[in-house]
Amino acid sequence: MIARGLASEDHPILAHVIPMRRCNLSCAYCNEYDDHSKPVPIDTMYQRLDRLAALGTNIVTISGGEPLLHPELDQIVARVRGHGMIAGMITNGYLLTADRIKRLNRAGLDHLQISIDNVMPDDVSKKSLKVLDKKLQLLAEHARFHVNINSVVGGGIHHPQDALAIGRRALKLGFTSTVGIIHDGGGQLQPLRDEEREVYAAMRAMEKSSYARINYFQDNIAHGKENDWRCRAGSRYLYVCEDGLVHYCSQQRGYPAKPLADYTVEDIRREYRTAKSCAPRCTVACVHQVSYIDFWRGPQEAAPAAIGDRQADRLVRIQ
Residue 286 — very low, low, confident or very high, per pLDDT cuts 50/70/90? Predict the structure, then answer.
């Protein structure tokens, strides 16, 4: 994947696809779900995955909403793997059972991430260790795919120290552990309080949080500092919503908002070169991670006036 990425700038490295906008939970900080949407038909999902493969995409992460609500999720995962792409999934974990995990094994899932926000459920989030620990035990027993547990600080989480308990439990079960910083409604930076920064630093020092250690930008975010980087959203990273439109990311839906079916290498090249006005205060970790591969090359230009105006209007409306 890295070799292909270095050899060519003209293909996506990571795409997030949304087969299900509906979620069975309603976390107070989340703006990526609703309580009524129907699943995207499987034939439509096949067409989108086939198009991502044709564009040369390396990794597809299935997200939501809650992807486990999709009745044909196993076929979606299998289609990703059938194209030789890495298959990942982000889930709240509530619907996992031993049988469900075994089915994901058979489908060929490579990577699963669960975000756990607290030890005890509260008014901010029901994604708690108390509720999900039995699900984690099932994953430890049955999963043949990599499991990462992501705990969070910021965003109104009442007890930041909970992240340490969650991280230690993840490591004990043989999973990796990472920590994220919750952004505001526009995916933008909100500095951490002193206690939250201390927890963040302790989590980053945990032995098996290694695979996300290169995220130096998160260290700046924890201290309220902006980052100087080249965002490759719309190019190396694609966010494909339930309507099949390509957006910069989950927090900047609205541009380019072009159907994936019509997305071309020219679109990838344009967005590769286009600077994003929201980049300095962005906290969307997956976009930062994907952009590392091109950090040293590919200078960017300001967006054309019409695009820049739309980006600015989007940020104003969010704020």
Answer: confident
pLDDT given at position 309:
54
Rounded average pLDDT over 109-125: 91
Pairs from 171-175 (Cβ < 8 Å, separation ≥ 24)? 171/206, 171/207, 171/208, 173/136, 173/137, 173/139, 173/140, 174/140, 175/136, 175/139, 175/140, 175/147, 175/148, 175/149, 175/208
Say whether 219 sits in a helix, a strand or coil: helix
CB proximity list for 243: less than 8 A, separation 6 or greater: none
Distance CA 86, CA 60 (A): 6
Distance CA 53, CA 94 (A): 30
Helix (H) or strand (E) segment spanning residue 202: helix 194-204
Beta bridge partners of 256: 247
For the chain, the distance separating the N- and C-terminal CA atoms, rounded to the nearest angstrom, is 37
Question: Considering just the CA atoms, what is the radius of gyration of the chain in Å?
Answer: 19
Name 171's Cβ contacts closer than 8 Å, sequence gap at least 6: 177, 206, 207, 208
Distance CA 134, CA 233 (A): 36
Let me know: does 15 contact 245? Beta carbons within 8 Å. Answer: no
pLDDT (tens digit, 9 = 90+) per residue, 181-213?
765 555 555 666 777 778 877 877 774 544 445
- Do 48 and 3 meet the contact criterion of CB atoms below 8 Å apart? no
The torsion of the CA quartet 221, 227, 304, 15, rounded to 10 degrees, works out to -60
For residue 222, pLDDT beyond 60? yes
304 DSSP assignment: P
Q: Note whether 127 and 167 are within 8 A (CB).
A: no
